[in-house]
Structure to design on (220 residues):
């Protein structure tokens, strides 16, 4: 049976704002869970680690939004189902989203987030894979004797004129077919590949000993 409460829940501070969950009105948002995402992120240090891995080559005098803030905004949006950067033209003004990211003013716009994603290259991708591996290691109490890697391609249908889109006869549409490597529920890495060549649809299991993990995402 569920237990109901009308007590306030304190969730820390952001600048001059006090963050709390209450039941007496005020500014209402449909994405209240994003504040809980922030709590999880702060505990894991995921967006901060990703920001360090990405680096920041922007001219400091022109920077209004920090790298961690932009990454947190984009990551939280994906977690809440806001896949398109254009969604953030509205979300950036939402007080709950600002609070979750850690700002007391407007967040990054869609063009700003687009520039962030387009500026990332192979170096940043590999560095982010390192962040995922570090998270996996930190989640384990002891080193396992064997790791079972699930290597699987996932169909992502496309609509419009996205870059690097190809027609895939198996799925009968234009799509991306990224390759994912999982160990249980943990994501080790991903790679966006062409969908029209040999071996573009892969599904296999690889059993390896720690320290001998093959470079499944390299080359090509």
């Amino acid at each position: 049976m569920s237990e109901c409460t009308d007590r306030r829940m304190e969730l820390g501070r952001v600048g001059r704002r006090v963050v709390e969950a209450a039941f007496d009105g005020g500014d209402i948002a449909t994405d209240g869970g994003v504040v809980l995402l922030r709590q999880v992120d702060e505990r894991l240090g995921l967006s901060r680690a990703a920001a360090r891995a990405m680096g920041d080559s922007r001219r400091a005098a022109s920077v209004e939004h920090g790298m961690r803030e932009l990454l947190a905004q984009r990551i939280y949006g994906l977690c809440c189902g806001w896949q398109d950067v254009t969604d953030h033209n509205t979300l950036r003004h939402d007080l709950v989203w600002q609070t979750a990211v850690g700002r007391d003013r407007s967040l990054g716009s869609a063009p700003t987030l687009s520039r962030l994603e387009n500026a990332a290259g192979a170096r940043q991708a590999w560095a982010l894979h390192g962040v995922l591996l570090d998270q996996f290691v930190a989640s384990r109490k002891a080193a396992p004797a064997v790791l079972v890697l699930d290597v699987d391609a996932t169909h992502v249908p496309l609509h419009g004129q996205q870059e690097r889109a190809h027609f895939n006869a198996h799925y009968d549409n234009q799509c991306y077919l990224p390759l994912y490597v999982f160990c249980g529920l943990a994501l080790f890495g991903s790679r966006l590949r062409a969908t029209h060549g040999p071996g573009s649809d892969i599904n296999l299991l690889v059993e390896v000993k720690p320290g001998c993990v093959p470079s499944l995402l390299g080359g090509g």
